[in-house]
Recover the amino acids of this structure.
């Protein structure tokens, strides 16, 4: 395993700039998640690292070696695709062995590595099946197996869970986390799902519009977003934003406060309003409160607190939990 | 929903609300069945029936059993021409399979290269001859290859190959091969388009995955793309088979019904034409013609059956 360094990476396609001046370091054995909205360039970045697209400017280093001009196969990477990209006419075993056969490994070694990967992924009984005879989750495991057998320096995952249903997504997420610990692999993982990013990552890279907005551990990003975009993108439900005169009073253009940092009181608070809706999640409830002059605020409450739509309530932020942002969206 | 409906239908008999009454189904099927019966089934059966009859000395038609087929296969007056036509037809088909379809695959692969410029132009240009009349194609090639007025001898001389020129269409040894190649030239666009369509249907992700897996473009073509277009190649092969064993027009246009020189380009279609309708000194014999047509039908049926049973089933099966 090996560390990866991106320096000033840019990608232009036609007249438009898809990636602008991306610099990033990935440590040995680190699980880095690239997260951002659709079209922010995160998948393009992955393809540049994989060597499936050519960079317009900048350099990619692996273990100190510049790999810009190496073909994908020589880069020591393996990639798992959103669509699984399994070869439909080959059994699971042949799918997993394909790269090893291309690399002309001897038969015994191929057999050994495929069996080992199948054991790790619990695919032993499915090896002779073709992809059409596998479920979505099994296909994804074969795709991951195909990556594992190559024993790459770097795993690239391109939205690997997007085609799975909700339950399977959680299972596979845990599976990937387990593999990361087991293989001590360096992983670069792309997703648009911030919950996936938060649960899996050692470090999250938030991307927007071809740039890196912020890099940090999940807790760093959650507690200390550097700008409005990251503040709004990380966390569910979203952070509440308050603009206008109330923000100006605190020398900011926008104020931000997370739902769990808003206290609901029946008697007093900074803002007063009417409960619009209560989303019951069991342990918690999300209370949507329409505050005249401020807007809709969402507060997180304990699930057993009785609140009903139409009720008048007051909201107050916990002290020190109010984030301030300037005109350009930067945190003050 | 469907379970509920099925249950309902069973309860109320076959004419429940979930399923239209059989009489209605029959009514809707009737037009298609009628047209198919009158224009396909009946002529086929009538032809087979006709092949079992002969005209007796009194000029009356009478039942002859398999006599026509026995004459066709074993009476030297008929069998020499029949086996000659069958052998020629087989060669005609083999040349198409060996030349047309590999070229079509190669052209389709080239057409689906990323970054190819003027793709639409190449596609149209290669497909264009298939839209021409066989008569025009035959005539044009005949002019090109003509030793008297043709341009080919001049063109070959210009590049120093003049000595290699020969009146290929007029020679027994080469006429059939040249005619086959003319047909290949005309129709290569059709399998090319079909295979091209299948190739561009292969998701890019598969190619990307194989590239990351370390396969080169050559290996990707042979191990990923070609197997994935195999069903289309199978389809193209069976279309070629049916087309070749029903062929007639090109030979007739270039060589006439006698399929010269000395019947060296005679295929089943032209042989059938002379037998059924008669030609010059040969009198037409509808019953023998029907026998030839029946044999052609059986050959094509057998080929299609082999394709459907052995080939297609294996290709479609997702699991061994």
């Amino acid at each position: 395993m090996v560390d990866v360094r991106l320096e000033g990476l840019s990608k232009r396609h036609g007249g438009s700039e898809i990636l602008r001046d991306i610099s990033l370091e990935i440590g040995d054995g680190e699980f880095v998640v690239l997260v951002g909205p659709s079209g922010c360039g995160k998948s393009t970045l992955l393809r540049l690292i994989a060597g499936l697209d050519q960079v317009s400017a900048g350099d990619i280093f692996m273990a100190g070696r510049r790999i810009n001009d190496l073909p994908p196969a020589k880069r020591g990477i393996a990639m798992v695709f959103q669509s699984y990209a399994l070869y439909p006419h080959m059994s699971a075993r042949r799918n997993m062995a394909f790269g090893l056969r291309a690399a002309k490994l001897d038969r015994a070694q191929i057999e050994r590595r495929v069996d080992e990967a199948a054991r790790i992924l619990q695919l032993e009984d499915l090896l002779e099946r073709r992809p059409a005879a596998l479920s979505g989750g099994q296909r994804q495991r074969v795709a991951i197996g195909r990556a594992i057998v190559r024993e790459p320096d770097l795993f690239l995952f391109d939205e690997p869970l997007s085609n799975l249903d909700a339950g399977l997504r959680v299972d596979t997420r845990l599976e990937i986390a387990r593999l990361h610990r087991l293989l001590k692999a360096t992983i670069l993982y792309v997703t648009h799902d911030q919950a996936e990013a938060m649960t899996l990552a050692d470090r999250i890279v938030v991307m927007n519009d071809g740039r890196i907005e912020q890099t940090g551990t999940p807790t760093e990003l959650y507690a200390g977003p550097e700008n409005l975009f990251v503040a709004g993108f990380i966390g569910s439900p979203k952070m509440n934003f308050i603009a206008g005169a109330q923000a100006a009073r605190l020398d900011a253009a926008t104020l931000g406060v997370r739902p769990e940092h808003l206290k609901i009181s029946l008697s007093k608070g900074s803002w007063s309003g009417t409960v619009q809706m209560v989303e019951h999640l069991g342990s918690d409830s999300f209370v949507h409160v329409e505050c005249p002059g401020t807007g809709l605020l969402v507060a997180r409450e304990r699930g057993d607190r009785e609140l009903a739509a139409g009720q008048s309530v007051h909201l107050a932020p916990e002290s020190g939990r109010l984030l301030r942002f300037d005109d350009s969206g930067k945190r003050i | 929903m469907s379970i509920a409906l099925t249950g309902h239908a069973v309860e109320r008999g076959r004419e429940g609300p979930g399923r239209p009454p059989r009489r209605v189904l029959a009514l809707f099927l009737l037009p298609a069945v009628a047209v198919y019966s009158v224009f396909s089934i009946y002529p086929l059966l009538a032809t087979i029936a006709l092949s079992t009859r002969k005209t007796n000395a009194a000029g009356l038609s009478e039942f002859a059993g398999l006599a026509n087929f026995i004459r066709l296969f074993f009476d030297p007056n008929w069998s020499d021409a029949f086996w000659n036509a069958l052998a020629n037809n087989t060669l005609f088909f083999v040349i198409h399979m060996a030349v047309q379809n590999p070229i079509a695959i190669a052209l389709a692969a080239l057409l689906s290269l990323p970054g190819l410029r003027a793709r639409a132009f190449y596609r149209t240009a290669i497909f264009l001859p298939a839209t021409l009349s066989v008569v025009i194609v035959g005539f044009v090639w005949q002019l090109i290859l003509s030793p008297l007025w043709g341009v080919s001898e001049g063109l070959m001389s210009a590049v120093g190959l003049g000595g290699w020129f020969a009146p290929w269409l007029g020679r027994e040894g080469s006429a059939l091969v040249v005619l086959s190649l003319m047909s290949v030239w005309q129709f290569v666009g059709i399998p090319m388009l079909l295979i091209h369509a299948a190739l561009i249907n292969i998701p890019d992700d598969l190619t990307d995955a194989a590239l990351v897996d370390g396969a080169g473009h050559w290996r990707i073509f042979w191990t990923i793309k070609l197997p994935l277009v195999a069903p289309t190649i199978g389809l193209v092969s069976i279309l070629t088979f049916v087309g070749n064993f029903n062929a007639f027009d090109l030979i007739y246009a270039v060589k006439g019904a006698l399929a010269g020189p000395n019947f060296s380009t005679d295929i089943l279609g032209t042989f059938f034409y002379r037998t059924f309708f008669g030609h010059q000194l040969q009198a037409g014999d509808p019953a023998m013609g029907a026998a030839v047509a029946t044999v052609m039908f059986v050959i094509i049926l057998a080929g299609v059956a082999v394709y459907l049973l052995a080939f297609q089933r294996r290709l479609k099966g997702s699991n061994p």
The two ends of chain A are 39 Å apart (CA to CA). Chain A touches chain B at residues 47, 50-52, 71-73, 77-79, 81-83, 85-89, 98-99, 102-103, 128-130, 132-133, 146, 150 (CB under 8 Å).
